[in-house]
Amino acid sequence: EAEVAQSPRYKITEKSQAVAFWCDPISGHATLYWYRQILGQGPELLVQFQDESVVDDSQLPKDRFSAERLKGVDSTLKIQPAELGDSAMYLCASSLDSYNSPLHFGNGTRLTVT
Amino acid sequence: QKEVEQNSGPLSVPEGAIASLNCTYSDRGSQSFFWYRQYSGKSPELIMSIYSNGDKEDGRFTAQLNKASQYVSLLIRDSQPSDSATYLCAVLPGGSYIPTFGRGTSLIVHP
Predict the structure, then answer these.
(1) Pick from B101, B64, B69: which is nearest to B86 by CA?
(2) Chain-chain contact of B97 with A31 (C-beta, under 8 angstroms)
(3) Using CB atoms, which residue from B4, B44, B97 is nearest to A55?
(4) pLDDT of residue A1
């Protein structure tokens, strides 16, 4: 079964450093999502792409976070500078479309900021 | 703000029992509903999707949707210790392309 690929699986960084996460969605999936999940809470959307266009980034802290999906396939999420409160699981998901298709998640990146 | 509410639990059931997990949502126009299972430290995995009122069965899992009462539930029959996980409810609100997740219900199945 096709999977969403994410890397790295784990990342430890010091505050004020830059960090980047990569995601490759399931082939043919037009919609890509980045979610952040804090322990004990549900995933919260950071940014949603439809092909290469941003559909929603209203919850993305744009002073430090950026996301791109230049060719409408894989995507990168960057944090610069990282803060202690950014420690969380960062989840990438993709879906066939954004209308009613379920999301398929990658393994996630566990970020620890020290 | 469109909300999805779940009891955080934990819900504890004995092995072999039926586990019932509930989710309510605020947006009456919501059309698509999903249940995910998430093991500790892992990412969510899709269990079921449901779009119409009524029941939908898949193996030991049954999703139930009642749009008039704005709730969706997941029943797990013959619960096994391997079902112990957090179950996330996700809703696609009407007129929105952004799936919203509840905080999840922790299920513990004890032998």
Answers:
(1) B101
(2) yes
(3) B97
(4) 72
Q: Backbone dihedral region of A15: left (phi > 0), alpha (psi from -120 to 50 degrees) or beta?
A: beta
pLDDT per residue as tens digits for the range B46-96: 999 999 999 999 999 999 999 999 999 999 999 999 999 999 999 998 877
Counted residue by residue, chain A has a size of 114
What does the block give as tokens for A79?
Answer: 């944090």
Amino acid at A109: T
- Retrieve residue A70's tokens: 């230049």
* DSSP state for residue B18 in the 8-state scheme: P
How distant is the alpha carbon of residue B41 from its chain centre?
Answer: 19
- Contact check, Cβ <8 Å, A56/B97: yes
Closest of A26, A27, A22, A74 to residue A49, by C-alpha: A74
Distances (CA, A) of A35 to A109, B22, B50: 11, 23, 22
**Residue B34 to residue A106, Cβ atoms within 8 A:** no
* pLDDT, position B1: 64
